[in-house]
Design a protein that fits this description.
This protein is α+β, with helices and mostly antiparallel strands and about 800 residues long. The protein has 23 helices and 28 strands. It has an eleven-stranded mixed β-sheet, covered by helices on one side. The termini are far apart.
Length: about 800
C-alpha cells in the first residue's frame, strides 16, 4: 500500500510540475512565477542607502556618466554629451519602468494580443486601423533625419537595451513573470509610438457621427441654438478677451453654404451607427497651468505652476529626472519611452502644458467606385487608394489575424455608417502628419530666454498644447501651440463629404499666428482647457472646449493674488471651490422652495443651502450637488438628444435665462413637464440613487466616499498592485480636478530666480515595481496636497543630505 501511495504521489508531483511549467492557452505557466529562484519573490527591493555606490561597465558609451539618486528615488544624470545623457536616461528609466514601457508600446502599435490573447484583439485592430504605425513611421523618418533627435533616439535605445541585456529571468519585472513572456529589444521607433499614443489621447475631436445624426433629425437652426460654437453664459478664454491680433491672416476657406452636402447631411442617406463613441471626451482629461509675473511675486521673479490631469495609474504616467551636460541642466518629468524632459525647468526658464483640444480629428464619407475599394471619387475624378496590410499575432493562436486597411489622401478608411457593408468613413487626424515634435522639448530643455521658447514651439506638431512659460528675464507667456489646420468655421463638427475638395484641410495656421500673449497687463497667464480665445480670433480651432469653471476660479484667484510664493500656487492647485455651484445652486434651491418636499428631501435642501461651495472630502453637500447636476442635465436633454448632450454652459444658460423653453418637456411622457418639474424630479432621483448606493444620509455620503477615487495598476486586473483607498476632494469642474480615475498626474511649482527653487509630486513613486519602497512613497503627500522640494544639482559631486545612491556608467 505504501508503494502504491508513493507511486501516486510521485505521479501527481510529476504532473503538477509538468502543468505548472506549461502555459494553459493564453495564461502563463505558473511554475516559473512561483519559483523561489526566478519567480515573484525575486522582485523585492530595498531602499538605497547613502553608501550605495556601483560602477557598471556597459557597451556603446562614449564617456563616463554619473547618476546620483535622492531620497525619493529620482535620478540626477550627469553626462558629457547628448548620446551618453540619453543612453543613461534610457537605461535608468528601463530599470524603473520597463514593463510600463513595453505595455504602452504594445498598446500604441497594436500588439497587446501577442501577450494577452484574443481579449485585446479588437483594441489591436483599432490601433492598426487608426494608422498608428503609419504615423509613427512618418515621424520616425523625420526624427532620424536630424542629428539631435537621431542622437537622442539612438542613445536612449542603446541604454534601454543595455539594461534589458543584463537581465536574467529572475530579474524580470513581476508583470512579465505573471504574463509569461520576456522583454524584447527596444527600437528607436518606439519613441514615436509613444508620441502617437499621447497624440491620440489628447487630439481634439467632435463626435461627428452623433452630431450628424442630430443635424439630420433637427436641422441646422436647432443645432445652432442648442450646440452653439461659443459659450452663451460665461467664459474666461486663455488669451484674454480684447487681445488684438497684430497679423494679417492667410486666406481662410469659405464656409460651405447650407445647400452643400456637408451642412445638409445629404451625403449620408441613412441613420448612422456611432463608431466614434469609443473616443467620447471624458471631463477630467485636461490640465491647469499658469504663471504669475515678477510684480505679483514676493521673490521678484515669475512663478510657474502646472498640473496635467490624466488617468491616475500605477506606475505614474510620468517619470522624474534631472538631465545635465555641459550645455544643459534641466529637471522635470519625462514620459517613459521618450528621451528629454516634457514638463520642467532649467536654471533660466520653466514651462508646462495643458491640452488645447483643437479639432484635428475629422471623419470623411468616402465614395468608392466599387466593392474592391481600389478607387474613390474626389475632386471630380477617380483616385487610387493605397493598401496597408496589418498582421496581428495572438497568443495561443496558430495563425495571425490579417487585415487590409485602405488609405485615401484623407487617411485610413476604417469606420462605417449603415449605408455600406464595408468601411466608408476615412479618418484625417494630426497623428499622420510628419514632423519632429521631439525637437520642441529638446530645445526647451536647453532654452535660455523667451526667444528660445518661441523658436522651440515652431517645431511642434501635435497634439496642440497650451505652452505656459516664464524666464529669469521676468517674462511670462502662454501660446496655444501646435500644427493646426486652416478650416472654415465648423469644419469637422459633422461628418464631411470626402468627394468635395473644399472639405480638405487647407494648409496650416502659421506658427507665429497661433494665439499667444506675452506679459499681459493683468500680471498672469493661465489655461484650464477652456476656449483658446474670444470670437475675434480669425481662425477656427474647435467649436467646443472644456467647461469654463476651472478657468474662472483660477483667474479670479490669480487676479486677486499679491506677494505670491510657491505655496500660494500650491494652494491654488488644491483649490476645492465650486464655481459651478455658485453659479446655479441658488437658482435650483429657489425652485425647490416652491415644491412640497419630504422630510429627507428638506434635510438635503438645508445641507445644500448651508454649503460653502467647497468640494471638501467630508462634504455631504458636494456629493448631492455633484450627483444632481449630471442627472439634471440628462433629464433636460436626453429625451431629444440621447447621449449627445448639449454643453454644461448651454444647460446653465437654459436654467438661468430660458426657463420657459420647450426643452424641459420630456417628449417620452404624456404630461408636459416644466423647469420646476425637471429640477425636482432630478433632485429626488439623485437622493434615491445615493440612498440605494450608500444607505440613508450619513457620513457614508461624504464626497470622498461617493467619488471613490481609485489609482489602479496599469494591468487593471491586478488589484493587489493598486493604491490603497485615498481620501480626496475636488471634482471634474474643480481646480483640484480629482475624479474617480483622473486627476493631477503631476503637480509642479517653480520659483525662478538666480537659483531656481521647484516643487513637485505625483501619486505613486519612481518605481514600477510593487515590491519597491519607491512604488508608493509619494502617494501620502500627494493625497494631502503637499509637494516635495525638487533637488536641482549643478555638479555630480555636489554634496546634499538628501542624496543616497550613486551609479557610475563606464564604457566597457
Amino acid at each position: 500500500m505504501k508503494i502504491v501511495k508513493a507511486i501516486v504521489s510521485l505521479a501527481i508531483a510529476i504532473a503538477l510540475i509538468y502543468f505548472l511549467d506549461k502555459p494553459l492557452g493564453p495564461a502563463p505557466a505558473l511554475g516559473p512565477f512561483l519559483s523561489p529562484f526566478t519567480g515573484f519573490s525575486q522582485n523585492g527591493e530595498d531602499a538605497s542607502g547613502s553608501d550605495t555606490e556601483l560602477v557598471l561597465k556597459l557597451d556603446s558609451l562614449q564617456s563616463e556618466v554619473i547618476i546620483r539618486f535622492d531620497d525619493t528615488g529620482v535620478p540626477h544624470i550627469f553626462a558629457r554629451n547628448d548620446f551618453d545623457l540619453f543612453y543613461a536616461q534610457g537605461y535608468i528609466t528601463a530599470r524603473d519602468r520597463l514593463w510600463q514601457m513595453d505595455l504602452q508600446i504594445r498598446a500604441a502599435s497594436g500588439r497587446l494580443s501577442e501577450i494577452l490573447g484574443k481579449v485585446t484583439l479588437e483594441m489591436d485592430l483599432q490601433s492598426r486601423r487608426l494608422g498608428m504605425g503609419y504615423g509613427a513611421e512618418a515621424n520616425f523618418k523625420m526624427a532620424m533625419s536630424e542629428p539631435q533627435s537621431r542622437t537622442a533616439l539612438l542613445g536612449y535605445t542603446a541604454g534601454v537595451n543595455a539594461y534589458i541585456r543584463q537581465l536574467a529571468p529572475k530579474d524580470y519585472p513581476i508583470e512579465f513573470k505573471l504574463l509569461g513572456y520576456k522583454p524584447e529589444p527596444w527600437k528607436p521607433i518606439n519613441t514615436m509610438y509613444m508620441l502617437e499614443q499621447m497624440t491620440l489621447t489628447l487630439a481634439g475631436r467632435s463626435n461627428e457621427t452623433g452630431m450628424t445624426e442630430l443635424l439630420q433629425k433637427y436641422g441646422k437652426q436647432v443645432i445652432d441654438q442648442v450646440f452653439p460654437d461659443y459659450p452663451l453664459l460665461q467664459e474666461s478664454p486663455i488669451i484674454p478677451s480684447g487681445t488684438k491680433w497684430d497679423f494679417k491672416p492667410i486666406a481662410i476657406p469659405e464656409k460651405l453654404t447650407s445647400t452643400d452636402s456637408v451642412n445638409s447631411g445629404s451625403h449620408l442617406t441613412q441613420k448612422l451607427s456611432l463608431p466614434a463613441k469609443r473616443f467620447e471626451k471624458v471631463e477630467g482629461i485636461g490640465s491647469n497651468n499658469w504663471a504669475v509675473s515678477a510684480e505679483k511675486s514676493i521673490t521678484g521673479y515669475p512663478i510657474l505652476a502646472n498640473d496635467p490631469h490624466l488617468e491616475l495609474t500605477l506606475p505614474s504616467i510620468w517619470y522624474q529626472v534631472q538631465l545635465h551636460t555641459p550645455e544643459m541642466n534641466v529637471y522635470g518629468v519625462s514620459l517613459p519611452g521618450i528621451p528629454s524632459v516634457i514638463i520642467g525647468f532649467n536654471q533660466n526658464v520653466a514651462w508646462g502644458v495643458t491640452n488645447v483640444d483643437a479639432d484635428v480629428y475629422d471623419l470623411y464619407k468616402i465614395k468608392f467606385k466599387d466593392s474592391s475599394r481600389k478607387q474613390y471619387w474626389h475632386e471630380n475624378q477617380w483616385k487610387n487608394t493605397r493598401i496597408r496590410k496589418e498582421v496581428v499575432y495572438i497568443k495561443g493562436e496558430k495563425s495571425p489575424v490579417t487585415e487590409e486597411v485602405v488609405y485615401t489622401h484623407h487617411g485610413p478608411v476604417t469606420e462605417m455608417d449603415n449605408t455600406s457593408k464595408q468601411p466608408d468613413l476615412a479618418i484625417r487626424w494630426i497623428g499622420h502628419e510628419p514632423g519632429n515634435s521631439f525637437m520642441t522639448f529638446y530645445q526647451l530643455n536647453k532654452a535660455k530666454n523667451y526667444d528660445d521658447y518661441r523658436s522651440a514651439l515652431t517645431r511642434y506638431v501635435g497634439p496642440a498644447q497650451n505652452f505656459v512659460f516664464a524666464d529669469n528675464s521676468k517674462n511670462i507667456a502662454i501660446t496655444v501651440n501646435g500644427k493646426m489646420p486652416v478650416k472654415y468655421k465648423e469644419q469637422g463638427k459633422f461628418i464631411l463629404d470626402g468627394t468635395d475638395h473644399r472639405n480638405d484641410w487647407q494648409g496650416w495656421i502659421p506658427a507665429e499666428q497661433n494665439p499667444y500673449v506675452k506679459n499681459p497687463e493683468r500680471g498672469f497667464v493661465s489655461s484650464a482647457n477652456q476656449s483658446s480665445t474670444d470670437t475675434t480670433y480669425p481662425y477656427y480651432i474647435n467649436w467646443v472646449f472644456a467647461p469654463s469653471e476651472r478657468a474662472i476660479r483660477i483667474n479670479e484667484r490669480l487676479q486677486a493674488m499679491t506677494q505670491a510664493n510657491a505655496d500660494s500656487l500650491r494652494a491654488l492647485q488644491n483649490d476645492n471651490f465650486s464655481v459651478l455651484a455658485r453659479t446655479i445652486l441658488p437658482k435650483l434651491l429657489e425652485v425647490l422652495s416652491t415644491t412640497a418636499l419630504s422630510p429627507s428631501e428638506k434635510a438635503a435642501k438645508i445641507i445644500l443651502a448651508n454649503w460653502n461651495y467647497q468640494n471638501a472630502p467630508n462634504s455631504v453637500a458636494a456629493s448631492i450637488f455633484e450627483e444632481w447636476i449630471p442627472a439634471l442635465r440628462n433629464a433636460i436633454w436626453s429625451d431629444e438628444f440621447g447621449s449627445e448632450l448639449p454643453s454644461r454652459d448651454r444647460t446653465l444658460y437654459l436654467l438661468l435665462k430660458q426657463t420657459e423653453e420647450k426643452w424641459f418637456d420630456n417628449i417620452t411622457t404624456s404630461n408636459k413637464e416644466t423647469m420646476p418639474d425637471i429640477v425636482y424630479g432630478s433632485f429626488k432621483a439623485t437622493l434615491d440613487s445615493l440612498k440605494a448606493r450608500h444607505g440613508t444620509m450619513s457620513p457614508t455620503w461624504q464626497w470622498s466616499k461617493v467619488k471613490g477615487t481609485e489609482i489602479r495598476h496599469l494591468s487593471r486586473s491586478l488589484k493587489s498592485f493598486n493604491a490603497p483607498p485615498i481620501t480626496t476632494g475636488g471634482g471634474s469642474s474643480i481646480v483640484n480636478a480629482i475624479t474617480k480615475r483622473n486627476g493631477p498626474s503631476w503637480r509642479m511649482v517653480v520659483e525662478l530666480g538666480p537659483t531656481p527653487r521647484a516643487y513637485g509630486i505625483y501619486p505613486g513613486g519612481q518605481s514600477g515595481n510593487p515590491g519597491s519602497p519607491y512604488y508608493l512613497n509619494m502617494l501620502g503627500k500627494w493625497e494631502k496636497g503637499e509637494l516635495n522640494e525638487l533637488l536641482f544639482l549643478n555638479a555630480p559631486d555636489q554634496q546634499h543630505s538628501r542624496l543616497t545612491a550613486r551609479i557610475t556608467l563606464q564604457k566597457k
